[in-house]
Amino acid sequence: MFFKKKEEAFFERMEEKLKNLEDGIAAGNRQSEELTEKIGRLQTTVQKHDMAMEDLLEEWEEKRSDEKEVKERFRELEQNESRLLALFETYQEQFWSLKRFADTKDQAWSDQIALMEQSLDRCRRLCGIDVIDRCGEMVDYDLHEVIQITETKDAEQDRRVADIYGCGYLYRGKVKKKARVAVYQMTGQET
Asked: Which residues, in sequence order, are CB contacts of 81 under 8 Å at separation 6+?
């Protein structure tokens, strides 16, 4: 009986240990399932981040490509602007020469050129071009290149533009070409 009690106690302890072991295995299985589920969610999150990174990289590459295109387009526009300003300068010089010639030869031509100039003035202003072509103004060395001095005894004419040999112009407020001018100077003074 003593052995029987010992055997029963032993089996009870073993059953208890077995139950604890089964409970531990069940808890481990639950934790394993939870971990597997968390890992699955993490993998999904990582995949989403990977896709988002790929999208960002593609977008960045497109922007770099767009930036290159914009820079190229800007360079082309600058070149076209330079060419148009060169064309304008050539046109303005020819027009200015024609005007000066007509002023001395034929009043009808001179009047016609004045009408053309009024018509073109609006277009120039819309393009941001202001012509430097007025006599009688005070000389401004930022706008005028003095190529001749004309003596005068009239104090009011001193340091004023006497004649324009080649008009200049401003483009968008910046001097692109100075007007070549003659300037009045009081007799006995130096510029």
From this structure: none
Q: In the predicted model, is pLDDT for residue 189 greater than 60?
A: no
Alpha helix stretches (DSSP H) within 2-150: 2-105, 107-126
pLDDT of residue 188: 66
The mean pLDDT of 138-160, rounded to a whole number, is: 94
Which pair of structure tokens corresponds to residue 107?
Answer: 């009043």
Nearest alpha-carbon partner for 139 in 164, 157, 160 = 160
Helices 2-105 and 107-126 sit at what angle, rounded to 10 degrees?
Answer: 170
Q: pLDDT digits over 36-61, tens only?
A: 888 888 888 889 888 888 888 888 88
Q: Flag whether pLDDT at 20 surpasses 80.
A: yes
Positive or negative torsion for Cα 82, 87, 89, 92: negative
Residue 157 has pLDDT above 60, yes or no: yes
Q: Which residues pair with 132 in a beta bridge?
A: 168
Please state, in angstroms and as integers, the Cα–Cα distance from residue 59 to each residue in 48, 67, 68, following that order: 16, 12, 14
Phi and psi at 177, nearest 5°, equal -150, 125
- What are the φ and ψ backbone dihedral angles of 128, each rounded to 5 degrees? 85, 25
131 sits in which H/E element:
strand 129-132
Q: How far is C-alpha 24 from the geometric centre of its chain's CA atoms?
A: 69
List Cα–Cα distances, 21 to 7, 24, 26, in angstroms.
20, 5, 9
